[in-house]
């Protein structure tokens, strides 16, 4: 995993000045390292490691020594810290690909903040955007504590920067290609390579058939998985017309098939050393995929069982092997929704809901069809998030903290919570009108009251990718209203009722405007209000944000963004992103 490199910079003037600052400067680095290590964790559960340069950095030779150490140690993110004046261009981190921040200690004995300003100016002049962290309140010289406002910025920067470094060099695995003309399923080489530093890998869906027919999966695991599915995955109601319903025997066959699909998709993504033991060396490697998509519709689903079980279970934090890190797997191979799912996962360490942003139900329309009024959080209208396939089962809202529904990092989830998520989910025989080959769709209703953030990447010819973000809440609506609304769509699919936080302005004027401004058919829903983290990450990658409802004081972007205008931040973001261009271009 990428590490965070800490660079203590210092005034290089020996015979008094430097010596007097050595201890304080190194202590600041140590306290930043300790703070980050204590408060951050990678999405796979591993602790975040910091590497401190061997010496303080007073000039370019010591900057080079720090760089050498960072290269050796696999440092993907850098944080420069200083309590004093140092020499800007001579001490800064000039690696153009490494996200970077400078914490200039706010003291008056020695001018750390003056260095911060000078060093940021140097970064801007050189086209190497850096984040500036300057505490609001003056601290005393010997104080190594980290004020709360500085802590907040350190974490925001570090989490987004680590996500950037984690994504770099990994693959998006496109299983199949374009589903039903959905442009998001065109896995765009330019977007992945230039903006994310990723490579695209492609496998034809026929690879699933080859592996199923030739037995290229681990038989022992399959048997264990089948037993687990029988015990834990309850089959839901078959809504197909009686005469079309598949027989028990056919359904039993299909369960076996979809379990194999799940195992094979996982092996395709990350490999499986057990396949090498079975003589399948090449297959054992996988595609180094940190995210993937499955086309499914229609060539596959017109003939074979659909991908819903595979997608839902891989996107969840558990399966027959126990509790584990969720995968990122987009339905309909919508790669532009897989990207925000990946962002959400790396920023929160939790599983992600993939959904169609399907229907805006105005209060008037709800009243017309149900005779009932929406109230409480739902009173301004609701958005129906629903899709066959890849909503994580963590999205049931059956995990809890302080008696509130939450979605947790996998290492905090208990066996009892896994049972509850599974209990809250039924697996309905797929709607055969849509899915001629059958399969099983996960069906659940997300618990209300969870703070969530819905985001989506869109791509515009000539402009490139843009990100849209809506913080809001999942809501409970009365069961009788839900039943009527749900029956009007496909009731075999999982439903999340969503209300965005409204600002009364522009895209967040009302719930309708959020729906009306959504850029495509899908959204990625992440637990928590993480719009600020997404904005920080997007700025590192130079992806402009075209719509968000995040309070101004939570927004943290590289210092250079201010130089593109401070009155109207949205336009400044576009100008800055365009000026610097994609991180890996
Ligand atoms: C079954 C249907 O084709 C759905 O998959 C369709 O409505 C979508 O989800 C489109 O994104
Ligand atoms: Mn869809």
Automatic annotation (TrEMBL):
InterPro entries: Fuc/Ara_isomerase_C, Fuc_iso_dom3_sf, Fuc_isomerase_C, Fucose_iso_dom1_sf, Fucose_iso_N1, Fucose_isomerase, Fucose_isomerase_dom2_sf, Fucose_isomerase_N/cen_sf. Residues 385-548 form the L-fucose isomerase C-terminal domain. The keyword Thylakoid does not apply. Its main location: cytoplasm. One of its GO terms (molecular function) is arabinose isomerase activity. Residues 1-169 form the L-fucose isomerase N-terminal-1 domain. One of its GO terms (biological process) is L-fucose catabolic process. Transmembrane segments: none annotated. It catalyses: L-fucose = L-fuculose. The active site is at 332 (proton acceptor), 356 (proton acceptor). Its cofactor is Mn(2+). Converts the aldose L-fucose into the corresponding ketose L-fuculose. Belongs to the L-fucose isomerase family. This is L-fucose isomerase. It comes from Iocasia fonsfrigidae. The gene is fucI.
């Amino acid at each position: 995993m990428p590490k965070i490199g800490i660079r203590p910079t210092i005034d290089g003037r020996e015979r008094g000045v430097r010596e007097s600052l050595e201890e304080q400067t190194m202590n600041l680095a140590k306290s930043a390292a300790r703070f980050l290590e204590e408060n951050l964790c990678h999405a796979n559960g591993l602790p975040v490691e910091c590497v401190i340069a061997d010496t303080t950095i007073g000039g370019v030779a010591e900057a080079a020594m720090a760089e050498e150490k960072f290269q050796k140690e696999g440092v993907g993110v850098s944080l420069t810290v200083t309590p004093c004046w140092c020499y800007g261009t001579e001490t800064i981190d000039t690696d153009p690909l490494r996200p970077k921040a400078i914490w200039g200690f706010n003291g008056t004995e020695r001018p750390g903040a003056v260095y911060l300003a000078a060093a940021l100016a140097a970064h801007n002049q050189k086209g190497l955007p850096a984040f500036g962290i300057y505490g609001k309140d003056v601290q005393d010289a010997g104080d190594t504590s980290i004020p709360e406002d500085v802590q907040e910025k350190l974490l925001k920067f570090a989490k987004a920067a680590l996500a950037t470094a984690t994504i770099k060099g990994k693959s998006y695995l496109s299983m199949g290609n374009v589903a039903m003309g959905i442009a998001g399923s065109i896995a765009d080489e330019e977007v992945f390579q230039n903006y994310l530093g990723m490579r695209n890998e492609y496998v034809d869906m026929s690879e699933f058939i080859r592996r199923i027919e030739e037995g290229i999966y681990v038989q022992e695991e399959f048997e264990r998985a089948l037993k687990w599915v029988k015990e834990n995955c309850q089959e839901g109601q078959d809504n197909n017309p009686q005469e079309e319903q598949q027989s028990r025997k056919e359904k039993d066959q299909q369960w076996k098939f979809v379990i194999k699909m799940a195992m094979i998709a996982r092996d395709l993504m990350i490999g499986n050393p057990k396949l090498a033991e079975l003589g399948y060396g090449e297959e054992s490697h996988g595609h180094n995929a940190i995210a993937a998509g499955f086309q499914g519709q229609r060539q596959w689903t017109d003939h074979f069982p659909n991908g819903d079980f595979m997608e839902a279970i891989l996107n969840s934090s558990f399966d027959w092997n126990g509790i584990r890190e969720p995968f990122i797997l987009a339905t309909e191979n919508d790669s532009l929704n897989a990207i925000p799912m990946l962002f959400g996962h790396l920023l929160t360490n939790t599983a992600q809901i993939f959904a169609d942003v399907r229907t805006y139900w105005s209060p008037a329309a709800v009243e017309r069809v149900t005779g009932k009024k929406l109230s409480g959080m739902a009173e301004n209208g609701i958005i129906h998030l629903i899709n066959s396939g890849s909503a994580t089962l963590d999205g049931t809202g059956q995990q809890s903290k302080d008696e509130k529904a939450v979605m947790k990092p996998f290492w905090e989830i208990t066996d009892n919570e896994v049972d509850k998520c599974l209990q809250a989910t039924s697996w309905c025989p797929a709607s055969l009108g849509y899915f001629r080959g059958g399969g099983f769709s996960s069906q659940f209703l997300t618990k209300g009251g969870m703070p969530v953030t819905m985001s989506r990447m869109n791509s515009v010819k000539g402009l490139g990718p843009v990100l849209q973000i809506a913080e809001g809440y999942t809501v409970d609506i009365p069961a009788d209203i839900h039943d009527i609304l749900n029956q009007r769509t496909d009731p075999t699919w999982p439903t999340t009722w969503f209300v965005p936080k409204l600002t009364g302005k522009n895209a967040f004027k009302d719930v309708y405007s959020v729906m009306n401004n959504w850029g495509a058919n899908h959204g990625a829903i992440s637990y928590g209000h993480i719009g600020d983290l997404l904005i920080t990450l997007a700025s590192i990658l130079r992806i402009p944000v075209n719509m968000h409802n995040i309070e101004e004081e939570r927004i943290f972007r590289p210092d250079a963004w201010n130089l593109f205008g401070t009155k109207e931040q949205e336009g400044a973001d576009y100008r800055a992103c365009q000026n610097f261009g994609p991180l890996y271009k």
